[in-house]
Amino acid sequence: MQILTVVSLSGGQGKTTTSFFLGLTLASLGFKTLWIDGDPQHNLSLYGRSPHQNDEPTLLECITGQVQPTDAIYPTDWENLSLIPSDRALEQSQTHLANVTMGELLLKKRLKNLDFDYCIIDSPPQRSQLCVTCICAADKLIIPVETNSKGLACLQSTLETIDELSENMAWQGEILAIVPFRDTIRGLNRTKTSREAITYFEQLCQERDIAITPSIVDSEKYKQAIDRAEYLPTELNSPFNKLIELAGVV
Fold first, then answer.
1. Which end of the chain has the smaller Cβ count within 10 Å, N or C?
2. Residues 124-133: pLDDT tens digits?
């Protein structure tokens, strides 16, 4: 099983959007795919229409060892796609992770023997014990970044955290790609803000030998597809097709 964690250390950067549509795309190709909602805000659980009830296991019980990971996996409405959901109680995992030996590797150990082709983890939007264990579980990281000044600052802090974990040997994977998010186009042209951000991303990716995908454009069609539980129109799916290509799937 290849584990892909979607990470950005700020809200509104497109982590859940990327996790959601990447999972749908992999599942549509016939790969047995697992979503893991690693964010206490639990938007991926909401987008994925998690069928779990309030008294049933979630990622919290999986992390704390109260249940086996398989006991917290639920089918979704999409073929080949399952989910380990979360809710606000996931915040309680922070104390557990801080108090166990090598807590940063705990989630990786929990997921070790699951029978899936791909696992996609939607991480929380700030540096925390929970975020670190989501990063360290990954074989490859995906970094969505909003195409504005907030996104530039977020990208810098995210890369610094990843570099630190790599230098400390806590994480030994690779960064799969940066995904520009909310790329704003007016008429036939990008806005100045988006254009400048994309240029910076491209330069940084060249310097660090990191791939960059086509943009997730600023379009209501993404929200509409989520609300309707539909696949994206072909013209909007290029960022996720590129991620799959970079992951070596096709």
1. C
2. 998 899 999 9
